[in-house]
């Protein structure tokens, strides 16, 4: 991956609807070159999808929470199968510490959140943090070709 590829990825993280022509102008290369690079970045797995970032509160999901779950290793597959069927779970990470999983969830209200937590507790202890506000929303990492090159050397 070179500096142009990184620039393309930075542009896409900022706005995935940017046209190939606009990316070409910003990268100082031709549109066909951008198209080839995009295809290569997709094929190599650098780009896994293109998604819209929604405002869940405006849609009616007033409650955003992080739920920590202490799931036993023997129950992980059943746990994964369960949460994959719950559309309110937008992210699940396997973590270190007192809890083995962390879920990011959205619900319409605290009653729905409480019902979900009650179901989760069959897999182990839980701890829930409800988000009051978000100062820095999810954003992409700014890629810097020089910085990445230096990290590879170390």
From TrEMBL:
GO terms for cellular component: cytosol. GO terms for molecular function: sequence-specific DNA binding. SUPFAM superfamilies: Dimeric alpha+beta barrel, Winged helix' DNA-binding domain. Transmembrane segments: none annotated. It comes from the Bacteria. Residues 1-62 form the HTH asnC-type domain. Keywords: DNA-binding, Transcription, Transcription regulation. GO terms for biological process: response to amino acid. This is HTH asnC-type domain-containing protein. It comes from Enterococcus sulfureus ATCC 49903. The lineage of its organism: Bacteria, Bacillati, Bacillota, Bacilli, Lactobacillales.
């Amino acid at each position: 991956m070179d500096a142009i590829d990184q620039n393309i990825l930075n542009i896409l993280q900022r706005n995935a609807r940017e046209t190939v022509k606009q990316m070409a102008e910003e990268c100082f290369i031709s549109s066909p070159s951008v198209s080839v690079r995009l295809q290569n970045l997709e094929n190599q797995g650098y780009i896994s999808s293109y998604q819209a970032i929604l405002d869940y509160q405006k849609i009616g999901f007033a409650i955003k929470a992080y739920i920590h779950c202490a799931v036993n290793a023997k129950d992980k597959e059943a746990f994964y199968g369960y949460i994959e069927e719950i559309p309110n779970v937008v992210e699940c990470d396997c973590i270190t510490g007192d809890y083995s999983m962390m879920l990011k969830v959205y619900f319409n209200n605290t009653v729905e959140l409480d019902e979900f937590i009650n179901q989760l507790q069959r897999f182990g202890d839980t701890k829930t943090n409800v988000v009051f506000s978000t100062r820095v929303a999810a954003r992409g990492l700014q890629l810097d070709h020089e910085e990445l090159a230096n990290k590879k050397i170390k």
